[in-house]
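Worked example 4.2. Below are the chains of a multi-component assembly; read each line carefully before continuing.
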Amino acid sequence: MSDFITLTITAMVPFLFVAQGTMLSGRAGIFNVSQEGLMLLGAAIGYLVSLKWGGNLVGLLVAALAGAAFGAILGWATTYLRMDQFVVGLALFFLSGGTASLLYRVVIGADEPPRIRPLPDIVFGQDVLVFVAIGLSALLWWWLYRTDSGMRLRSVGENPKAADSLGINVTRTRMLAASLGGGLMAVGGAYLPMAFSGVYADGIVAGRGWLAIALAFFGGWRPQLILAGSLFFAAMDVLAQRAQVSGIGIPHQFVSMLPYVATLLVMIFAFRWALVPQFLGKNYDRESRITG
Amino acid sequence: MSTVTVAARPSVGERAKAAGVAAIPYILAVLVAFVVVAIIIALLGHDPAKAFRAVLTNSFRNRTGMVQTLHKWVPLTLLALAFAIPLGAGRFNIGGEGQMILGATGAVAMGILLSDLPTVVLLPLLIVAGVAAGALWAGISAWLMQQFKVNEILSTVLLNFVSFEILDYLASVVWSDPGAGGAVTTAIGAGGELPRIGKPPMHIGVILVALLAIAAAFYARRSVAGFELRAVGLNERAAKLHGIRTGKVAVMSMIVAGALAGLAGAIEVAGVHHRMLEGIQSNFLILGIIIGLIARGSLTAVPFVAFGIAVLEVGAGSMQRTSGAPVEMVLILEGLILLFLLMSDWVTDQLRLRASRKAAA
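Applying the procedure described above to all two chains together yields the following structure tokens:
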């Protein structure tokens, strides 16, 4: 049982980072859909930098910077150029995913990849990023709901015109949220080779990026509920693996389906819970006279 | 601001000129993307000319390459249409692979359960089952979107994951082929296989989809439904005020998309694999989205863009073998073409703005 909890908490970490990153961008109105690619990029950079240029910490940092750069491109293209958020997000998904495989191929080639050292455990058999991820969720909640700047950020996602009229810089807020969000997504990806496999592979992300989007919706774009949702998704993931290995009476495929079906049910039945930022995915044009 | 003038129908020459001007951003985007990729390939220490020659000529050097390309073109076109049609109504269908898998499931169910039937009965049954299953799967998302306002991006992505588990369950438990090793079903009855023609054999799904693509392009341009679709996509509020039932149009666009993706799944089963296997969806969803976006939602452009992408995809392996440039370059190339095309929009807008300012001054 304690084994189950340990595994669940480790499995939760990537979900948590990426879903909180999605939430943070989304609360400012930027709907990022390049998670899958950014995680792959984070995984590749995290792995390669850890291996070649000194340790996991540097790897995480460089991955975060790369993710933030891609996030900033999304922010720039959707604020200054007012391009379609979803289309740009998809283009960045392809580019970051392709760049990830390419970087790996160039540095490692077709050889047997060496394993990187896993993140060291600190307490309760959990590595440091577990605590960072949970602390980050608390921090985000505090920032968004207990500080002025957090409320300003949320107001940009709810009604940018009103925010603008109160002197909040919508463009700058969105750039910041998009960059921070992208950085978190890449960190979530970089965690994968460091905690699980020790190596990078093109299939390492395995849909977790798309699931993080689902998680953001599942948690009603609120950090505390996203934490709970990530725990649930991770527990189902571990349960499905267990069912696959030892069998628990029902086919493991049906256990694996549960988080997806649960998310859809939440979206259907939990109207009040499943709030979505009003301006999610919509660009703000301060010259436009049509209010959203 | 602009004045509204009712223009006479443009002459053929004017329309050709307009098409030519419209093609400039495409050509530039493709050229710039190729140049950037050439620089990357050169930096990696490979020969870009050799790489591009390999990637571009592989499909045309012999008939095998051509048939490979056309076989790839079929699902690419269908999935690109499955993305582009809801896009016309301003909806995003990211569920192409789930709908395709359900289509394959419907087809393989018919092919295995009714394997003794003759071709005239089984083949149409198999195709219809695939189309219906795909439409049904997309119908769930459409219903959730219409009835409960569930974001269609979210529901289609989630249903993709559900479909992977369905595929895994069917292929590794229910109809598993124990001899195959891995999640693979047993083969469908011979009556369910699409006839093949020519040498090397090409399945006739290619012809079917070519006809379908032409029909779709004409239908989108000439029919009331096509007009309503565009009206909803351009301005949903205005369309609603003019009496178009916007909800119905959006739902129908999703269901048609599901049917097309389901057809892709059925053709993959009946024409290519003759069974269902894990990974049957390949990366057709991503490529379908790229194609749909490069074609900018134009159903007429989709088959041509799909052919270009199919050439690149088939040539990727050959590029790596002959020049050493990694296959990933092809994905980067495709992503860059899309990104530069998007950028070109902004550039044309700026140029137009500057021209109108100059005219006003």
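Take a moment to check your reading of the output against the notes. Chain A has one domain: 2-113+128-269. Chain A has a mean pLDDT of 88.
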